[in-house]
Amino acid sequence: MSHKPFKAVIPAAGLGTRFLPATKAMPKEMLPVVDKPAIQYVVEEAVDAGIDDVLIITGRNKANIANHFDSVPELELNLRNKGDDARLESVRRASDLADIYTLRQGEPKGLGHAVLRAKRHVSDHPFAVMLGDDLIDARDPLLTRMLSEYDRHGATVIALMEVDPEHIHLYGVAEVEHTDEEDVVKVVGLVEKPKAEDAPSNLAIIGRYVLNPAVFDVLEHTQPGKGGEIQLTDALQVIAADPEQGVYGVVFRGRRYDTGDKVGYIKAILQMAVDRDDLSDELRPWLRDFASEL
Length: 294
What we know:
This protein has eleven helices and 13 strands. It is α/β, with parallel strands linked by helices. It has a nine-stranded mixed beta sheet with strand order 5-4-1-6-11-8-12-10-9. A hairpin with a 5-residue loop joins strand 9 and strand 10. Helix 3 runs antiparallel to helix 4. The protein is globular, with a radius of gyration of 20 Å. The model has no long low-confidence stretch (mean pLDDT 92).
């Protein structure tokens, strides 16, 4: 399917209250996961999928995000003079990743509102919405598959993951019809945080979406829902019910790190660190000893 190049939108205007007091002065998206801020992993994922235009939707006290993706000549000069090429490369990588733009959300009116704020920048391009709470392992290219399915179907694509029924109430859940493609389903309905007995499936929505710009017209007419916020899920419901548009889901079976709460964040750091060649030899034996003493 022929269309303009994909863009990416990363909503990052949340207050990060679950991580207070650490997020009192630091955006939660800048909290380090091993040695990079969480949001850099998300930008790298977009770049690895071939997207080089990234819009980050920010809010108050989020200037550190833009600063991180800017160059720091004095720091780079200091590292160069020390001959510290490895750290110099890691610092420069963040500012060379992509064309990165920021836009203030203004009032915190929900994910749907944050996406709608991207309308002027996105224009008539298809685009990915990537939530920073969900980090996807680079070895499991979910977004690349989703972009491919968008090209195949010409329709909105969302990421789904099988979830244990006892946790299904924490997610938006998809009602689906199976297709002939492995791990691709047609979404016919969406239910926000249902009880286990009311859930139409065990397929939960995770934080990756590939959207047609037509979603902006739907969002402009979407009334505030739960919590008085404009919900992206409500707009997707409308699109799923439209036979001329439709929504497909890619069922992800790879490695996903949930950094949305303290325990998930700590698990993400440990899981990603033990797979690092420069850290695993020292970390794995320590973890075994630590676990044996619990």
